[in-house]
Amino acid sequence: xxxxxxxxxxxxxxxxxxxxxxxxSRIRKGQEPVAPKKELGYAANFLYxxxxxxxxxxxxxxxx
Length: 64
Prior knowledge:
Number of helices: 3
Structural class: mainly alpha
Mean pLDDT: 95
Largest sheet: none
Low-confidence stretches: none
Radius of gyration: 13 Å
Distance between the termini: 29 Å
Strand content: under 5%
């Protein structure tokens, strides 16, 4: 329960929430969920998992 451990737990939870939200959105549209890519950052991955296509830099900037 150290501050560092809690910080790491918060990061992991935030990543899982993005995956759940994007998967749910795609399933509601009749699409298959998209797995995240390790090389993408948080915003880019969220948009990628939501659309199924790697986002342009301007979309990533807007999301950030």
